[in-house]
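User: ok so my PI wants both of these folded by tonight, can you help

Assistant: No problem, let's get them done. Here's the first:
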Amino acid sequence: MSDNTITVASAEIEGRRRARLLGLLVRLVREKPMGTVGAVIVLLLLFTGIFADLSWLGFPEIGLAPRHYNEIHMADRLAPPSAEYPLGADNVGRDLLSRVIYGARISMIIGLSATLLSTIVANVIGLTSGYVGGKFDIMMQRFVDAWLCFPGLVIYLTFMSIIGGGMLQVILVLGIGGGIGASRGSRALAFWIKESAYVEATRAIGSSTGRIIWKHLVPNVLPMIIVGFSLGIGGIILAEATLSFLGFGIPPPFPSWGQMLSAAGRRYMYEAPWLALWPGVALTFAVYGVNMFGDALRDLIDPRLRGGMGGVGAYGMEQAKKALKKREVKLIKDLQRKNST
């Protein structure tokens, strides 16, 4: 009997989760049309990056890219857009469409991985510092203050010049560097949550600091973590393109959009403008789509915005109007009751 009860309860919880996710998708389409466009762009980028080729399944000859990104045909160097080369060819005869498609894979891998690492670092530092407090918090915040005194690009260039270029190096530098700077937001949330009654009760029964952070702080800041993750991907993609443009990111011949803009794109800008045009368009659409989707997701799931009126979307305005209407009806009833007496 107890097993059946547990099974029914688990199925009911799973059904509620699915309904909540479906409701979120419906609200995204209805209330955030630009966010929906951003979500479509993000899905297209993921699809393009995953299926650029199927070498990860053992089929390197099959994929969306017509050719390998480093397949050279010197006889076709700087070829304009045509049926054979839909976006043209670069200065050594490589198909630009294939390189743009493979560039989507690199951008999404770095964007997702570095943002995930940045989110972990930010919350480990911020939640621990905010909850523990005292000298540990002071020490950590002085370190964060010192880190933020330097421009982010200067820090990234310094570390990349020391450890060298490469995908793993870019992920580590952008993830750790961005996470340290973003830890202040998690710290502020930890200060707010640790004063709650349920945290005090958990502390009173003898729960350890690690358990309180993992079981109570993290679940309560999870919506903000998701929002921060979605908003951070665009910045990471742009930072990677900046590093590659300056020669400190993804080394050739790997097709990073920033590196494509810097190398042949800048050198042959007047002779073959398509070399800079298409990587720039791809980078623009990627960052635009991710940012639009992140903004919409923030308006929909961030509890600090859902019920307010500060320009936070249709849902927040609707909830605020309902609350004001209920308040107005209550005041009218109270006045009528007083007048009748």
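One down. Here's the second:
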Amino acid sequence: MRKLLFSGIAALFAVAILVLAASFYMGSDTKPYIYASVADVPQAEAALVLGASVTSAGALSAVLKERAQTAVELYAAGKVGKILVTGDNSTLSHNEVNPVGNYLTAAGIPKDDIFLDHAGFDTYSSMYRARDVFGVRSMVIVSQAFHLPRAIYVARRLGLKAYGVDAGEGESFFFNYAREVPASVKAFLDLAFARVPKYLGEQYPITGDGSSTWYEATTTTAGQTPSGDSVGTSSPGGTSTPPAPVACTAEAKRCPDGSYVGRTGPNCTFAPCAFAPKNL
């Protein structure tokens, strides 16, 4: 019994060492490509703003606001000509991308230079889709120091010429670094097994017009400007006017049972969910 217990402890210790080693290796491998200042970053095709949490009212979290502001600075400095905002928009009530897009336009960046990727469900998917859906070849990844090593490692292993700029510390400092340890292992496995994201879909070349990737949710939580103004129009009588149909890059919708269904048309229409909860 004692021998079995000792073997179990030794196995757990070995796994812990491997997990930590993966994280440290990524940090060492990507260190030459991480910059602390916008002024020092090499020029690239686009800035990639990775998603983070937003409030129920559509306001950016501290982490996401730092990323958005750093993207504004990169664009203003002429380091990039386009901005690709990627994140999770699996439901209308959870939209990490439109609020960032609204922040960027409020800062004076033209909408046609801003691309929204609504299906960047994780860092690996965001990098894969940047390459295969948006045709990005070189990028400056905008995130915090705790996230950049993993993001850059994945991007470069996928063949992208990727650099990173530190957007600041944000919040929950220790938690963010601790979370990167298992996330780094997942990234290694994604690359080792050449995982293909479930949703790819239509291509939107980064050299084109980014406005074709925008769509506005019908709820106010996902479609507000940084100042809190609702996105959309109203008639003189005060009734809401639905936005005109535009192309949509959201490739999936989360159903009530946790499964996903794919998009069936260009204007964010989706296949019906197989399961619908009964009204109680």
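Residues 32-211 form a domain with the Rossmann fold fold (CATH 3.40.50.620). The beta strands are 34-35, 46-49, 82-86, 114-117, 138-143, 161-166, 233-234, 240-241, 252-254, 260-262. Good luck tonight!
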